[in-house]
Amino acid sequence: MLSMALFTIGIVGVLTRRNAIIIFMCIELMLNAVNLLLVAFSKMHHLQLLSTNAAAGSEGQLFVFFIMVVAAAEVAVGLAIIVMMYRNIHSVDINFLNRLKN
Amino acid sequence: MSITQILFWVLTAMAIGSSLMMITRKNPVYSVLWLIMTFFAISGHYLLMNAQFLFIVNLIVYTGAIMVLFLYVLMLIDLRHDTEPRKNKWLKFAGAVAGGCLLLVIVAALKDSDIKSNVVQTGEGDIGLIANLGKALFNEYVVPFEISSILFLSAMVGAVVIGKKE
After folding, report:
1. Are residues B41 and B15 in the same domain?
2. Which residues of chain B make contact with A62, given a CB cutoff of 8 A?
3. Which chain A residue has its CA at the smallest distance from B141's CA?
């Protein structure tokens, strides 16, 4: 039931592709939904395999940690790109970028 | 209904409601603030599942660092004068319908799986504590950890190079 609710949040993030930096924030939201799902699955797995392996499921939480690392790096580069774009065309509307030439 | 279930539903309603508010706000600053609210709710979910390390990392990294970075960039680029142009009504409608269809497909696919028979362990289990995760991280995942530090370094250099005035 947890996974259903959080998938909903992820899908809400997917459907929201409006212009501006909001798209970028939606990407963050989708990453967070996946993180939450991973933690939930790791706890499920842990409960199932608790008798044989006391550390079962810790991989899921470590993966969430690595996803956070990658997300932080991605945000730094992406925001730098947005700042550069704004400096060049004085807008953050993605409709100006529909052609790559010039 | 136990206290854990009540907390779960409250946090879920908070997360979904604030994410919906986030995508419907016109002003990007309000959008960022609602997204911070969503991240707080997700952190509450982590705490509910006793993943304390991820709770604190989520709080520090996402609501602390990344959202401040977003607000900083919003401050840097002045969005007051260019209100975003009127998008096509049908385009928004089509986006909402497409998202709803995707949600429907995922829910339908997960409805018959055996996930429902497994419950998530809440409130107990010491797998999410810092000591256990640190042992697992530095015993089996040392190489990915170091590679991610190199990724950080390259991202830092790349951001500086891109953001530099030429």
Report:
1. yes
2. 133, 136-137, 141
3. A62
